[in-house]
Amino acid sequence: MNNYLPMYDNFTHNHLILYYFNETDLPDTVITQQHIDTYPEVEEEYDAIVKTMEKIEQALVSPSQESINKILAYSKAVSG
Amino acid sequence: MQKPVLTDQQLVELYQQGNENCLTILIERHQKRIFSAILFLVNDRETAEDIFQDTFVKVINTLKRGAYNEEGKFLPWVLRIGHNLVIDHFRRNQRMPLVHDKEDYSIIESLKLTDENAQDKMMREQIYKEVRLLVEELPFEQKEVVILRHFADMSFKEIADATGVSINTALGRMRYALINLRKIIETKKLVLVS
Q1: For B166, which DSSP code?
Q2: A1 occurs within a structural domain
Q3: What DSSP character marks residue A21?
Q4: B6 touches A at CB < 8 Å
Q5: In the structure, what pLDDT confidence band is assigned to residue B127 with cuts at 50, 70 and 90?
Q6: Are B61 and A18 an interchain contact pair (Cβ–Cβ within 8 Å)?
Q7: Could you tell me if B19 lies within 8 Å of chain A, comparing CB atoms?
Q8: How far apart are the first and last CA of chain B?
Q9: Any idea what DSSP says for residue A4?
Q10: Residue A4 — very low, low, confident or very high, per pLDDT cuts 50/70/90?
Q11: Which domain holds residue B49?
């Protein structure tokens, strides 16, 4: 898959990833926002990033209570 | 009246002053993100439980020594410790996960898709389980960048330094992780319930 989005000079998927994670500088932030607002393909790509990351959030799991109890017991033991 | 919520930094300071309950609150607050990050990397529940415990042993020792200096960044700090312990675990067992030469390695080709009952798929627990599996089945280097960036809040520059690759490679791994996750979700027709 080509890293460049069609027709948009020097605008790549990396811009969208950096934008999602708040790592773009001000000029790139403006350019990226303009591309998202202007081109439906870019907006679609950005929405896909957002939705995929949301799905990861839904996959979070907890450790066992036994692990937590051991950690708390260790903390109490070393606090003397 | 709503009770004020203590920040991580306040809880750390109170814990260092001897308030053990503050550690309980910190663990309750962050246990899912920390444990999931470790589990996604090692793909084994028992190993993840061990590394989760070892992570907090290091956290406790550092806090008790007064050596913690990551003001305001407790969770990323803990996740970096967990990540380092995962790498140590693989090195110790001489079973470092395979790093694929091609960044565009496609997870779809390596997946064994099964015909599952559509109704079962709609059950929340099953959906969660499947999504977890999706993340677990990503190539290690793609999972690593997702976890370090999304969970540990490290910048791509920090990830590049920590993993010994260029920023462009780190970005490329994130991009292909997202592509692979999308492909799997579409192929498995996962519809997640918020």
Answers
A1: -
A2: no
A3: T
A4: no
A5: low
A6: no
A7: no
A8: 29
A9: B
A10: low
A11: 8-92
